[in-house]
Design a protein that fits this description.
- The complex is a heterodimer.
- By secondary structure, chain A is α/β, with parallel strands linked by helices.
- Chain A has helices spanning 2-10, 20-28, 63-74, 86-98, 113-122, 133-139, 146-154, 181-190, 195-203, 223-226, 239-244; strands spanning 31-39, 42-49, 52-58, 77-80, 131-132, 167-168, 208-211, 216-218, 233-236, 248-249.
- Chain A is 38% helix and 17% strand.
- By secondary structure, chain B is mainly alpha-helical.
- Chain B folds into 2 domains: 1-95, RNA polymerase sigma factor, region 2, helix turn helix motif (Rna Polymerase Sigma Factor, Chain: A, Orthogonal Bundle); 120-188, Orthogonal Bundle (Arc Repressor Mutant, subunit A).
- In chain B, helix 1 packs across helix 2, helix 2 packs antiparallel against helix 3 (44-64) and helix 3 crosses helix 5 (75-96).
- Chain B is globular.
- Chain A binds chain B through residues 1-2, 5-6, 8-18, 20-21, 23-25, 27-28, 30, and chain B through 19, 22-23, 26-27, 30-35, 38-39, 48, 51-52, 55-56, 59-60, 116-117, 120, 124-125, 128, 143-144, 147-150, 175-176, 178-179, 182.
Chain lengths: 260, 188
């Protein structure tokens, strides 16, 4: 009788639910997930770890390439999920609507400290404004590393939310973008900046603009520069020219190293 | 290859490459843990969560262990120590929660669409669950670990940190009690 009981008890063995392994691996971070999200200028692929958003690319870049690049870069398997976890999906939407990272966690742990510094600094650039590669280099105390900044931004794993599209070439033109210059220009347009006007100004040789009432010079897209009335706007080809005219650098956009 | 050598090899692999071998640990042990937890946790809806949490905690613990400590682990017994703790915690927090009268059907009793895993609940399983629920918890745990999960007596003794003899007698008494329960069912 007890033998029969024992054998019936062993018949209570069941199979674990199908998604259990995946859920555990995703929770501990041995497997990352991705899904599609509607971005400011079209659908995006968004990947995440337990610590935050790890990668973003336009859907047009292709799922297969996105997954292959991701797995090669991070060494972690990437599996498609239906949606972003609730607590992050709201923050991601806020970040995309406001153009500011805010409380959205991004996981940059697979990058070098230099790349992380470049991206953190870039995240500070306000929507609708441009800074140059040289500006980023100077701001992170690596004034000689302009080219390295350019290549770090070109490999920005989380474009759009870390706005590498707001970094222009040193000559002030909008410049190139990892997913093509059109995407960069479209992103800037949705933030209220006219990329053609930016290029036209740069092509005339204008790098900085100032106000003859305040005697302060800015990057042309700085919010302070943009509210200067046309009759008061002064154009400069270089920092030296601005300083020679008795102007000082804006403390908000910091277009040049502060002079004591 | 015997089960024992396979298990030994897995601890070695975990010690050498935790991230690469952890999926194998889940695959090897998830059915056993889930089957047992389903019988021991207060509601079968919790069983999936508890099983999942068992492996999450196992991973986080292994991350902090030296390779030698991982090599020496008796994986089954160790995993069950974690799982039983979680079962106890779940029972405790459930008993603290105010009991609601089941106007909302299917929280405790599985309804057809409640949880994916519950789709497979059979009448036989419900009958056995009711019988097991009548055992004192010490006997129930011992019987489930021995006969549902198929843990060895030394593993059960290690899991419960009790002498093998006392575990054996719990299993024995548990089976006797089940027999008595079944006989009562047949009379009535």
């Amino acid at each position: 009788m007890t033998d029969r009981i024992a054998s019936e008890l062993s018949g209570l063995q069941v199979t674990a639910p199908a998604g259990l392994e995946t859920d555990v691996l995703a929770t501990v971070g041995l497997l990352h997930s991705y899904c599609t999200v509607l971005g400011p200028i079209g659908p995006l692929l968004v990947a995440w770890s337990p610590h935050g958003i790890t990668a973003i690319a336009p859907l047009s870049a292709g799922r297969a390439d996105f997954v292959a690049d991701y797995e090669a870069r991070t060494g972690t398997a990437l599996l498609e999920a239906d949606v972003l976890p609730d607590h992050w999906s709201r923050r991601l939407r806020t970040a995309m609507e406001s153009g500011k990272l805010g409380s959205l966690p991004v996981d940059l742990s697979s990058l070098t400290p230099f790349q992380q510094a470049v991206l953190r600094k870039t995240a500070e650039i306000p929507p609708g404004e441009l800074r140059t590669y040289g500006w980023v280099a100077r701001e992170i105390d690596k004034p000689g590393a302009t080219r390295a900044v350019g290549s770090a931004l070109n490999r920005n794993p989380v474009p759009v939310v870390i706005p590498c599209h707001r970094v222009s070439r040193s000559d002030g033109t909008v410049g190139n973008y990892a997913y093509g210059p059109e995407m960069k220009r479209n992103l800037l347009s949705t933030e209220g900046l006219d990329p053609d006007a930016v290029d036209a100004l740069a092509e005339r040789g204008v790098r900085l603009t100032g106000s003859d009432t305040t005697h302060i010079f800015c990057f042309p897209t700085c919010r302070h520069a943009r509210r200067t009335m046309d009759i008061h706007r002064v154009e400069f080809r270089s920092e030296g020219e601005a300083r020679a005219a008795g102007y000082r650098a804006c403390k908000v956009c910091r277009p040049a190293a502060a002079v004591a | 290859m015997s089960i024992a050598t396979m298990t030994t090899a897995l601890t070695d692999r975990l010690a050498n490459n935790l991230e690469g071998s952890f999926p194998e640990l889940i695959r090897t042990h998830q059915d056993g843990i889930y089957s047992g937890v389903r019988r021991l946790a207060p509601g079968s809806a919790d069983a999936e969560d508890i099983t999942q949490e068992t492996f999450v905690r196992a991973y986080r613990a292994l991350q902090g262990y030296e390779a030698d400590r991982i090599r020496r682990l008796k994986l089954k017994a160790w995993l069950w120590t974690i799982a039983l703790n979680l079962c106890r915690n779940a029972a405790r927090s459930r008993s603290r929660r105010p009991k609601t009268v089941a106007l909302d059907p299917g929280h405790d009793s599985p309804s057809p669409d409640s949880v994916e895993g519950d789709a497979l609940v059979s009448v036989g399983e419900l009958v056995w669950q009711a019988r097991l629920d009548m055992l004192p918890s010490r006997q129930r745990t011992a019987v489930v670990l021995r006969h549902v999960v198929d843990l060895s007596y030394p593993d059960i003794a290690a899991t419960l940190k009790r002498p093998e003899g006392s575990v054996k007698s719990d299993v024995h008494r548990g089976l006797e009690r089940l027999r008595a329960i079944i006989e009562t069912e047949e009379i009535s």
